[in-house]
Design brief:
With about 220 residues, the protein is α+β, with helices and mostly antiparallel strands. It contains four helices and nine strands. The chain has helices spanning about 15-60, 95, 100-105, 200-205; strands at about 135, 145-150, 155, 160, 165-170, 175, 185-190, 195, 210-215. The strands form two sheets. It has a seven-stranded antiparallel β-sheet with strand order 4-5-9-1-2-7-8, sandwiched between helices. Strands 3-6 form a two-stranded antiparallel sheet.
Length: about 220
Amino acid sequence: MRTTLHRRHGLSLLEVCVLVAAIGLLMVFALSLLNAKAKAHRIHCLSNLKHIGLANLLYANDHGEKFPWMVSTDFNPTNASGSREFTNSAQVFRHLQAASNELNTPKVLRCPSDAGRQTALDFVNFGNRNVGYFVGLDAAANNQGMLLSGDRNITGATFANPNLLLVRNNSSIAWTKSIHMSQGNVGLADGSIGQMTTPSLNKQIAAVTNAVFRLAIP
């Protein structure tokens, strides 16, 4: 009896090369999609901070050049004219809620890259969980270089409490990887915005004349 043997052939060198090239192209395509998505999120985030800056400037224009955290709540937090009484509070959202008329919508208070926060549809059921940006409590309309707002993924310096970061001119603070991969976006007191690396953020802080300023982080 004759037995027929079937030889098993592996992939040829050409087939292996084609397969590797195809996988490489897929990886490049996937990375380009991720980079495009991250870029779109950062542009969206900068747009949010521009909106926040202009809203606060409008508020200041109607309140003697003072931002919400410089104006009293009149002891009516649910319909506050300001948020000064909350400057040492964990309720960071109060500073933005006070400018709700100027902001128009709370949707601009969350960065699309911030998975740790939820987008609010209105200011009724609104809290820290809906805010993705810090508030610069010492920002003033006449001090244009001060940090007014920015991504909350910031660390370093000294925390006076879990939601209040004390920053000095010689402080060394940094962006964490949690939102924009060790980078971040900020808005200044004059309404300008910008993307910043950790070195450029510290350079901005070093140029501020205040010895100490406070960042309320939700």
